[in-house]
């Protein structure tokens, strides 16, 4: 897909209210962002602050109560929960989107091979999802998303369920894939160091209703890893910001329990 | 290896069972016309197959169950999808079906006889009724239980509307659907047998009743064995096989 470079992914005055049995819950409060194409942006914030809600809105899976999204093309989405289709083999999971476009069989097969190779899963095309490890599942999900060549990639805590070692491997692979494919990535995580390691920019959200509290630009050379001293230093600064919000979230939970 | 061991156990058990049967016959605990020997039943079975009465009975019963069950499968599946998706149908038809499901399907026979007369339609109707509730309700529940996350993933990957149903919802409901189908089949088979016995038309149920009228216990037992055999064949081999394949794929 060719893009007009000057175009940006724009998130304008987004508000989202949910209706929970008559209770109105404000999940997002006036979110504004501009994300350049090719940029890697990470969102961090306490649990329940509306990160998934925002990604759903950007993806078009949910409509905002107010505001609008300006984007090119259908974004790809890697969900917080595992969503490989258990009835399809790895290769058919990856081919799912292309089959909806009614592409030619040989063309599909070629692309599936290419993307499975990119996520280092060649040789597993005939496995079923339950036969894969957690990391392999997420890499399959990544290939399934990338194969449609979406200009924007939304990732909702894609590595949260993985062990620390596998996760570090995934950081390296994701940075490499991002370098090659030049995707715009919006990446949600709870893990501040993960955010600093991956992002060009890290946005810190407030506790619910989610607002953008602070923005950090990460001007460090790539590829980065978690042990990098600069990464640790910036992470600590962001942690300070976040601690306040997590504390707010905790207090809210406590008053909630008392009532 | 495990399978062979299981097969050997089953064969030994069946041999013991036949031994017991033969023993009871041999010691004349009951008169022979009430309690025939395995050989007599076997002979009746062979005779029935040779003079084709049994074969015709089997074929006719199978034809009825295929037509009845097939129609129930088609109608029940469509109905299940509609009820799951259309709120007003859920609140009306869905609740009605839950009520009707409690009525044993053979109770529909008098109604069917009045509506359709003494013919094939009446008995197929009872078979359809026997299967349709399990199928409809299982489809309905399964469609409502498809994890939203699969639907969202499907949409993001470009499966819209009908494609979403065909490529995501339908495969996602397969495990519960299969359970409903299996249950529907066994209800249909029972309804058919009761129907054929009450309504005395050619078929396995009728052969069973003829055995009774002729005081021919070995015919009764022979036909019962055939009915058991067909039941086990479909339940264990056909549906059991599909079920195991599916579970293996899904990793259940
Ligand atoms: N479909 C919904 N109906 C009602 N309320 C919802 C719905 N989805 C989310 N919410 C509420 O909106 C708020 C934000 O939820 P969201 O899932 O976006 O949080 P999150 O930041 O992704 O949290 P986490 O980090 O735990 O994943 C929560 O308070 C949640 O209860
Ligand atoms: Mg979330």
Structure, briefly:
With 259 residues, chain A is of the alpha/beta class. Chain A is 39% helix and 24% strand. Chain A folds into two domains: 1-17 and 41-75 and 152-259, 3-Layer(aba) Sandwich (Rossmann fold), CATH 3.40.50.300; 87-149, no CATH class.
CATH class of chain B: Mainly Alpha
Unreliable stretches of chain B: none
Largest sheet of chain A: 6 strands, mixed
Mean pLDDT of chain B: 92
Helix content of chain A: 25-40%
What does this structure look like?
The complex is a heterodimer of chains A (259) and B (252). Chain A has 259 residues and is of the alpha/beta class. Chain A is built from 7 helices and 9 strands. The longest helix of chain A is centred in the C-terminal third of the chain and has 30 residues. The radius of gyration of chain A is 19 Å and the shape is globular. The mean pLDDT of chain B is 92. Chain B contains 10 helices and no strands. Classes of the chains: A alpha/beta (259), B mainly alpha (252). The interface between A and B is medium-sized, with 25 and 19 residues. The complex binds adenosine-5'-triphosphate (ATP) and magnesium ion.
